[in-house]
Please model this.
Amino acid sequence: MITLADFDTYPDFPVPGILFYDISPILADPARFATACAALMPARPVDLVVGVDARGFIFAPVVAQRLDVGMSMVRKKGKMPGELLESSAAIEYGASDLVLSPAGIERKRILVIDDVLATGGTARAVAEMLERAGASDVQFAFLLELEGLRGRDALAGHDVHSVVRVPA
Model:
C-alpha cells in the first residue's frame, strides 16, 4: 500500500507557498513502484491509457502494458508534431498549454494517469481534449490528491481514483 509517508516533501517549491510532493522514493524502490502501478489500475475496462506530461509518463506505460492496451501522451505545447488538439490549463502555480494527438481516441474508453491532482486544471484540460477527440468515456487515476485544492470538482462527471488523498 502506498501512503503519504512514501513521498518526500519540499516546502516552497517550485514557488513560495507550494508544498511539493516528490515521488522519487516510490520510483527508487521496485516494490513500491510496482505497488503504485497496481494501485493505478482502473475499476472499469479501458481501451487506451493516456499519460500526462511528465510524471504521468512514468506510470502510464506500465499500466497500459499490464492491461494489454495502447498508450497515448498529453504533452506540453511545442513537444509533439502532427495534427494536435490544444488546451490551456490553469494550474496551482501558473498555466500550461497542452497538446494531444486525436489519432486513435474516437469511441475509446480512456484511463488518464497523472501523479498529482491539485486544482484539476490540467486534468480538466485533458478531459476536454479527449472529449473533443471523441472518447466515449474518460476516467482518471492519480497517485496523490490534494483534497483542499478541490481538483475533483473540476472533473465532475468523470470517475476519479486517487491512491493517496491528503485532507484539506
